[in-house]
Design goal:
19 strands; 476 residues; Phos_Acetyltrans/Butyryltrans; alpha/beta; HotDog_dom_sf; 23% strand; elongated; 11-stranded mixed β-sheet; Thiol Ester Dehydrase, Chain A; Bifunctional enoyl-CoA hydratase/phosphate acetyltransferase; 6-stranded antiparallel β-sheet; acyltransferase; acyltransferase activity
Length: 476
């Protein structure tokens, strides 16, 4: 925000907002602010105003190009009100009247310039009139009018408190909802493969205590008991399949799944390749017509909804056919968690097809496969750079008209290296909570890292519960 002409009493470093008293205000004084409007702004405005349409009027519908969705007119009016209440005149002012004309549309992704300017003063009533204006990204005046305000004659100071977090992107709340729903379905029988360190063993026992799984530990009994004793854990009432080493543990766990004695596998302290090699053996009985792939289900405070990132753990350099199966698996997961028509962004470094960049060619081919019915159940677009996939403003600035831009539910990465780096950046720098799961086999496979937090391990088990219950009705 900025103020022109007469200087305002500045907010101090503690976040105190001070008003302009009447005698400090002159004709021509101006305050202004800029805000890039997002789909989340529209959704929150609809919630606050109690819009009841489904979807609410002016809120992006399934398949809509978010970057060109028109924002409700009164959202701009609310921003004018915020400028009057916070800056000019500021706290203590009484807003007694306003006239507005709505002259041009404002869209998601617009950088909206909001300004108020004093046009007259009434000394007897301590009232001022201010011209109000909102200008959209195209430079057109979207909203124009006047506000009539009674201004205090004494100083008013208030704290600039942060607003409550109303976003759906609250990761901890989202995790609790996921766990509660998974518990309501009932625990699933799960083979925990070689949990021979304190982290993986405690994760299995935590998931049991949380009502998510009935664990069957497949590992050398002597090692399990030693780990449990050192970590202060108890193995009472836990079934154990005593095997000599990690290779045997993987083979035994896969056999249990193939014989329908367990409904899921959970990785312990063995290497991912060791477990997946046993799962993918042609004679193991767990392969399906799909290629196995890994999905991270993630939620970060910076994004208003959970999303799926794939594949960041199994397929190193997937071919076009591999990516088609990676996509199908991710779409199945989205359906399982309740996203009926997920928006899929196929990521590349750029948003245009470049023959020298294989990822852009694959993205274009996958979109055409969806057009021809070879991939169903979702809305696809690509190639999209990461910024365009998650930011409607970025897409609009670049002139991208897309039903996916700014509201992606699934992010498909070009290869494992880029996906793994992106996932870890989101987790360690973006505060994301994640769940890791492998799809494409007859049973879901909980695949977590040794560095994962307890919350991520529980979330992964919860996703496995949802998938296992789905597979009872619709086998993969």
């Amino acid at each position: 925000m900025s103020i022109a002409n007469t200087p305002l009493p500045a907010a101090d470093v503690l976040g105190v907002i001070r008003n302009r008293i009447f005698d400090e205000i002159a004709v021509g004084d101006t305050a202004c602010m800029e805000r890039t409007l997002t789909a989340e702004d529209v959704q929150l405005f609809a919630m606050l105003t109690g819009q009841t349409e489904s979807p609410p009027r002016d809120v992006p519908a399934e398949g809509a190009a978010v970057a060109h969705t028109v924002v409700p007119n009164m959202l701009g009016s609310a921003l004018i009100g915020a400028l009057l209440g916070n800056e000019l005149p500021g706290p203590g002012a009484k807003h007694v009247g306003q006239t507005l004309q709505f002259l041009a549309p404002v869209r998601v992704g617009d950088l909206l310039a909001v300004s108020v300017s004093v046009v007259s003063r009434d000394v007897n009533q301590h009232r001022v009139k201010l011209a109000c204006r909102c200008v959209n990204t195209d430079g057109a005046i979207a909203i124009s009018g006047e506000a009539d305000v009674i201004v205090p004659t004494e100083r008013v100071e208030v704290s600039r408190n942060a607003l409550p977090d109303m976003r759906d992107g609250d990761g901890e709340a989202g995790l609790q909802r996921l766990l509660a729903y998974a518990r309501s379905l009932g625990p699933i029988r799960t083979a925990v493969v070689h949990p021979c360190d304190a982290l993986s063993l405690s994760a299995a026992l935590d998931a049991r205590a949380d009502g998510l799984i009935v664990p069957r530990l497949v590992a050398p009994r002597s090692r399990l008991e030693a780990v449990a004793a050192e970590a202060g854990l108890t193995l009472n009432d836990v079934e154990i399949d005593d095997v000599p080493h990690s290779h045997a543990a993987a083979a035994r766990a896969v056999a249990l799944a193939a014989q329908d004695e367990v409904e899921a596998l959970m990785k312990g302290s063995l290497h991912t390749d060791e477990l997946m090699s046993a799962v993918l053996r042609t004679d193991a009985g767990l392969r399906t017509k799909r290629r196995a792939s890994h999905c991270f289900l993630m939620q970060t405070p910076a994004y208003p909804r959970p999303f799926i990132l794939t594949d960041a753990a199994v397929n190193i350099a997937p071919s076009l056919d591999d990516k088609a199966d990676i996509l199908r698996n991710a779409i199945d997961l989205a359906h399982t968690i309740g996203v009926t028509c997920p928006h899929v962004a196929i990521l590349a470094a750029v948003e245009t097809v470049n023959p020298r960049m294989a990822a852009t060619l694959d993205a274009a081919a996958l979109c055409k496969m969806a057009d021809r019915g070879q991939i169903t159940g979702a809305v696809l677009d690509g190639p999209l750079a990461f910024d365009n996939a998650v930011s409607a403003a970025a897409a609009r600035i670049k002139g991208i008209v897309s039903p996916v831009a700014g509201q992606a539910d699934i992010l498909v990465v070009p290869d494992l290296e880029s996906g793994n780096m992106l996932a870890k950046q989101l987790e360690y720098l973006g505060g994301a909570i994640s769940a890791g799961i492998v799809l494409g086999a007859r049973v879901p496979i909980v695949l977590t890292s040794r560095a994962d937090l307890r919350a991520s391990r529980l979330a992964s088990c919860a996703v496995a519960v949802l998938l296992a219950h789905r597979y009872r009705m619709v086998p993969p």
